């Protein structure tokens, strides 16, 4: 099977039907192969570099199979479908990408990680995987004593012709094993896992979006130098210095309303076909949480994982939420597909609107009250009077530890305070639990 031609011709509206048929057909083929249960080691080929990743496979048939990506303490589960007699298709949940792989006669698997976004061409990474290998970079028994302890916080200087957000790394080292995260003002890399061998180090991560790798060398003065690789996107060189006091710019001060503005005004089509605007009666007298997101954005997914259960728990307290999705294709039909998958996957019970193409300049144009738009996601908190009270740029995931805990505490404190404020007498507050569809 030519996977590249197969997926480039498959449209997003018919892909599920095509794959369901292929899966059923594969189940009926005598002697059809399936991935062996257990732990695997995969390797992506990115340009001339290799990016290793680990996963576990459980289930003897497509109906029960679960594909789990392993990154340090993080686990991400995905469903598996069979394609024909000897191939599988693993959709990356709400990200419009998939692993498509063939099971070889020797039990190994090989294939591609591919973008499924209509019109995106050439966005593919080949990979191979072997069964029974749980290591990531170095085989057991072949470790070289580390020349340094990288544990701590690192101030990173990145070299690029284009502007690059400030970033810091938080690394933990135990023997040769490394775990950590790189944080920027626009979000974080999620959990990374790797190794240090002598004076060389490497960490990688693959959770569904394009794989990431950082590798480099410990210099004689204790600093480190290396390169970050963003899968199918770009590579950036960097230097870093250990600095326990380094901090990123305050995410509460990066995005704000222009002088003269107190409110936010917008009107976007909802994925349910209705127009969504802050001036709608349902939002009057309510505290409103506005999230500017994209389904292609892993930090947006992490933010949704935080907000959706929070909203379901607190929705009766006089609070509403709106997600405004900016997607990789400027198409409402496509957005209904991608954002609809997000809604289903994470049990979202607040409104979801489509803002347009995922472009920061476009977001700034469509939300002109903002001084600028810096990052997906961005959280905008509106009080009962309709005034913007806080804007948070980016998202700090649970892997960031104290940073995430601080964010959660401040979020809850602010929402408690705003919910406790009286609604304007002119506002007619609607009970959200009596509305149809919620």
From TrEMBL:
Coiled coil residues, start to end = none
> Record's CDD domains?
TlpA_like_family
InterPro entries (UniProt xref): AhpC/TSA, Thioredoxin-like_sf, Thioredoxin_domain, Thioredoxin_ResA/DsbE_sf
The answer on whether this UniProt entry bears the keyword Translocase reads no
Q: Key word Translocase present in the record?
A: no
The record places domain Thioredoxin at: 257-420
Give the signal sequence positions: 1-25
Record keywords, A-Z: Signal
Specify the domain of life of the species encoding this protein.
Answer: Bacteria
Q: Which Pfam families match?
A: AhpC-TSA
Q: What is this protein called?
A: TlpA family protein disulfide reductase
């Amino acid at each position: 099977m030519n996977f590249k031609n197969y997926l480039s011709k498959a449209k997003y509206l018919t892909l599920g039907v095509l794959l369901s048929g292929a899966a059923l057909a594969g189940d009926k083929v005598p002697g059809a192969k399936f991935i062996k249960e257990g732990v695997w080691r995969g390797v992506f080929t990115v340009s001339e570099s290799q990016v290793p990743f680990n996963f576990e496979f459980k289930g003897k048939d497509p109906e029960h199979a679960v594909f789990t990506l392993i990154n340090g303490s993080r686990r991400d589960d995905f469903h598996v479908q069979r394609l024909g007699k000897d191939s599988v298709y693993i959709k990356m949940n709400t990200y419009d990408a998939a692993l498509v792989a063939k099971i070889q006669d020797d039990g190994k698997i090989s294939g591609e990680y591919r973008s499924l976004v209509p019109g995106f061409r050439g966005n593919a990474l080949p990979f191979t995987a072997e069964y029974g290998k749980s290591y990531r970079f170095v085989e057991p028994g072949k470790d070289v004593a580390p020349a340094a302890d990288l544990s701590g916080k690192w101030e990173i200087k990145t070299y690029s012709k284009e502007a690059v957000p400030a970033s810091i790394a938080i690394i933990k080292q135990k023997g040769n094993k490394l775990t950590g995260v790189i944080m920027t003002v626009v979000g974080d890399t999620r959990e990374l896992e790797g190794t240090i061998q002598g004076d060389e180090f490497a960490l990688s991560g693959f959770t569904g979006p394009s794989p990431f790798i950082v590798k480099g060398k410990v210099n004689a003065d204790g600093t480190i130098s290396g390169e970050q690789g963003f899968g199918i996107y770009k590579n950036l060189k960097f230097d870093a210095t250990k600095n326990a006091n380094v901090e990123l710019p305050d995410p509460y001060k990066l995005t704000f309303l222009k002088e003269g503005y107190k409110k936010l005004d917008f009107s976007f089509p909802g994925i349910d076909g209705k127009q969504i605007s802050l001036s709608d009666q349902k939002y009057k007298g309510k505290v409103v949480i506005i999230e500017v997101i994209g389904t292609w954005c892993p930090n947006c997914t992490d933010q949704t994982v935080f907000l959706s259960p929070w909203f379901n728990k607190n929705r009766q307290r006089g609070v509403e939420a709106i997600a405004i999705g900016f997607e990789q294709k400027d198409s409402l039909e496509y957005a209904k597909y991608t954002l609809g998958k997000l809604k289903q996957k994470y049990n979202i019970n607040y409104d979801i609107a489509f803002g347009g193409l995922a472009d920061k300049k476009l977001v700034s144009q469509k939300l002109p009250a903002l001084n600028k738009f810096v990052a997906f996601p961005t959280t905008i908190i509106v009080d009962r009077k309709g005034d913007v009270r806080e804007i948070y740029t980016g998202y700090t995931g649970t892997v960031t530890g104290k940073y995430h805990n601080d964010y959660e505490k401040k979020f809850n404190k602010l929402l408690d305070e705003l919910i406790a404020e009286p609604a304007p007498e002119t506002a007619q507050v609607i009970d959200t639990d009596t509305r149809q569809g919620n």
